[in-house]
Amino acid sequence: MEGGMNEKELKEFLSQRLLARIATVDENCRPHVAPVWFLFEDGKIFITTGKNSVKVRNIMANPEIAITVDETEDGLDNRGVIMKGKAELVDDEDIPRKIFIKYLGSLDHPSAERLLEMERITISLRPEKIISWDFRER
Question: Domain residues for 95?
C-alpha cells in the first residue's frame, strides 16, 4: 500500500458512511464515473447495483476499474484512497444487506425494502493497487 494511511487507519476510514466513486470504461473507451455506497471487508471493496446498470455492462466488457473514496474539510484538510484492479461480478444476497445497514442504519428503513426488491448484483474488487493519503492537520 502506498501513501499516507496504514492498514488500521484505512479500515477505519472505509468503515465510515462516505460515498465512493467507481470508474469504469464503456465500449468506446469513454470513462463512466458513478457515486455509490460501498462496504470494505476482508481486504475487498463491495458495491451493490442493479443487474442492468451501466457499471455492470462496462465491467462485463472490461473488468478494469478504479474506485476512490475521499473526504475534505475546507479543501485543504483531506484524506482518501484510490483502489485499482479487476472487478468481479457476484450474486450475494448478504453483501447488499450489509451495505444498506451501513448506510441506512437497519433494514427497517423505508428505503431498504425498495432497494432490496431491485434485481441486484455485487461488484467485488480485491485491489491490486491502493494509494492513500491523509493531509489533515493533526
Answer: 2-134
